[in-house]
Amino acid sequence: MTDSIAFRVKTEKRHIAYVNFIIEAYDGMAVVRTADPGQGILEVLVSPDFVDDFKELALALNKEVPFAVIE
Fold first, then answer.
1. Kind and range of the H or E run holding 38
2. How much is the pLDDT for 71?
C-alpha cells in the first residue's frame, strides 16, 4: 500500500484476529500487520482517503474490545 499512513495500535493478544478481520472488512481502507503478537501491537497502514473513517472505527472498536492507537 503506497502513500499509506501508519498507525500503531494495541489490543489484547486474544483480540488480534478479530481486530484484523474488522479492519480488513472495510475493503480498501487499511492493511493490518502484526508487529508484536505477544504484546498485541498491530501496525495499521491506512489509505489517506480513509484516515477519518479509520479514526471513527478505532473509537467504535474500543467500545467492543480494548483497542487504542499508540502512535
1. none
2. 74
d(CA 36, CA 1) in angstroms, rounded, equals 20
- What is the rounded distance in angstroms from the CA atom of residue 12 to the CA atom of residue 62? 11
pLDDT in tens, 13-42: 999 999 999 999 999 899 999 999 999 999
The helix (run of H) or strand (run of E) holding residue 67 is strand 67-69
Domains, the chain, ranges and CATH? 5-69 (3.30.70)
Identify the pLDDT of residue 23. Answer: 95
How many CA atoms within 13 Å lie on the side-chain side of 45? 10
What does residue 26 show for φ and ψ, rounded to 5 degrees?
-85, 85
Tell me the Cα Rg of the chain.
Answer: 11
